[in-house]
Amino acid sequence: MWIDGLQYCRWERRIFEEMRVGGVDAVHVTLSYHEMFRETVLRIEEWNRFFEKNADLIVQARTGADVRRAKADGRTASVFGAQTPSPIEDDIGLVEILHTLGLRFMQLTYNNQSLLATGCYEAEDMGLTRMGREVVAEMNRVGLVVDMSHSADRSTIEAAEHSARPIAITHANPHRWHPARRNKRDAVIEAVVAGGGMMGFSVYPHHLAGGSDCSLDAFCGMVADMVASYGLAHFGIGSDLCQGQPDSVVEWMRVGRWTKGVDFGEGSAAAPGFPPQPAWFRTNADMPKIAKGLAAVGFNKREVMALMGGNWLTFFDKNFGAMT
Amino acid sequence: MWIDGLQYCRWERRIFEEMRVGGVDAVHVTLSYHEMFRETVLRIEEWNRFFEKNADLIVQARTGADVRRAKADGRTASVFGAQTPSPIEDDIGLVEILHTLGLRFMQLTYNNQSLLATGCYEAEDMGLTRMGREVVAEMNRVGLVVDMSHSADRSTIEAAEHSARPIAITHANPHRWHPARRNKRDAVIEAVVAGGGMMGFSVYPHHLAGGSDCSLDAFCGMVADMVASYGLAHFGIGSDLCQGQPDSVVEWMRVGRWTKGVDFGEGSAAAPGFPPQPAWFRTNADMPKIAKGLAAVGFNKREVMALMGGNWLTFFDKNFGAMT
To answer: Could you tell me what percent of chain A has a pLDDT over 90?
Structure first.
């Protein structure tokens, strides 16, 4: 069972076919960045068309059991997520509505301050807001996972502590390996892991030591280092793959409608677009290379399976349903 | 198993308690009249609160199996419906979205012309529109039942014929018994029944011969006459009960936002509000009286059970899921 903890590809049949080639059994797909509720529903309508027209390749998953059924059918399971809380607007009732529509991950913040918490690009980090605490409790109740990939440190630690259920960092790497603003310091990882949470390792070049030139061996060595520090159970892949997307999309991700100017995020005026992917992970068909790389740095077969998807599946099983 | 094929009460815990007293095992509840998509979602959010706060009394049902489980639990199952197609706005993709959120009945028209078909108060009846045919096919695909209670004759007949699955008239009575504009002529009932459809008999005074003074015996006699004409399998109750609603609500039902003036619908300037209910059916606690009335006009126990809910349950089983 191989599961990618985050992708935002330019979805089309060709990519769904590549997922089958690459052995990607399930993927957490980003539905929306700055889309408000009605716009997010339009994204779900698009996915409903994808599911209807590509029923031989993909199927929506709402539970771990759905993921297992998809694998048994030879299809890739898509699990919906949102990278900002814009889809719930300022209405806590939309948490359950979106969960019913299949949303299973939602970031509380995306780089900036939100109604709920602070993003990793703000100068100050106020932690969880009043509404943030309420929304985390509601997400816990229905089974919508708190994702803090783009959040600031204090906010993430407070979310991990306040949340009654494990939270996730679906796509990031350790700050100690590559001190990017989006990568996570040990205190943050410790808080997430202590709550039973998950972290998916990113293959997005800005998150890699050496960027686009990072080797597969270096990436897998980083994974081994993290497993040595925190144990095997809390880690997986969250590739952050944006296969086929034009550069206008990375601008949308960073800028949304929050400024009339330009924010380069992890990029720069000199390099505003998507960075080139490392040679060993350009498409979904490259997924087996990561499994081989993990074996090459010393993980045994069971450990490779846990890191490639088994740990995510266990996390899905525990966290996608209503709180009991 | 007793099922009411349509109610639009002013929902509160007291009424949920009365449903248990009255032995109402399931009810098709109107979520929305003229509410557009986002407003309909707000109605679902309200229902989610009802379910959360009254979990000992009510539960949402999406299938016949859910209804059976609710009865086994001693709870009343609520099945969502919309009395106009306003919730899908002009977007066929919202059919599946609303089905996922639990919508199981949708009227194609409510008195007036809609994007889909003609309502029973228009002077001309153009039948199903171009979009109407597409939406009926999509409703068939996902398992959202076409309800033609407030539609014009030709539109209803065309919907019955065009639909690949049975349709419903959830709340109306025969025109031959009481020639109200909302009651259904034999040609309409024949078309619905021929397609395997269902009709729920209404206890709303404007639909009753004699209005508020209609006797239980006369109502049950009408049921017996219909069963004699069309057989037992196609009929049930659709009381149209609007328990606890203020008169402002009947104005909303009739007027929505389609005019700045007033439309009295089945009422009149002299009697613009809700008419008084017949003495034998004022609240959900009165449901057993209908069962007794049906027995009194000669239906045996099996027939009473079929009319009180068994037929609706069979219909739910066949028509609430994706088309196979």
So the answer is: 99
d(CA B183, CA B189) in angstroms, rounded, equals: 10
Residues paired with A108 in a beta bridge: none
pLDDT of residue A324: 85
Our CA-based measurement puts residue B219 at a distance from the nearest CA of chain A, in whole angstroms, of: 40
CA angle in degrees (0–180, nearest 5) for B124-B128-B133: 165
pLDDT for A132-156, tens place per residue? 999 999 999 999 999 999 999 999 9
List CB contacts of A167: < 8 A, sequence separation 6 or more: A145, A146, A147, A148, A156, A159, A160, A192, A195, A197
Residue B106 lies in a domain: yes
Instruction: Identify whether A324 is part of a domain.
Output: no
Q: What residues make up the domain containing B16? A: 3-319
Query: Across all residues in chain A, what is the average pLDDT?
Result: 97
Q: Is A103 on the interface with B (CB under 8 A)?
A: no
Whether residue A303 is predicted with pLDDT greater than 90 in this model: the reply is yes
What ipTM is given for this predicted complex?
0.90
For range B23-35, the mean pLDDT: 97
- Model confidence pLDDT, tens digit, residues A3-62: 999 999 999 999 999 999 999 999 999 999 999 999 999 999 999 999 999 999 999 999
Question: Chain A 26-85, CB below 8 Å of chain B: which residues?
Answer: 37-38, 41-42, 44-45, 48-49
B151's tokens: 């539609």
Output the pTM of the full model: 0.94
What CATH number did the domain enclosing B87 receive?
3.20.20.140
Question: Distance between CA atoms of A102 and B269, rounded to whole angstroms?
Answer: 48
Q: How far apart are CA B73 and CA B56, in angstroms?
A: 9
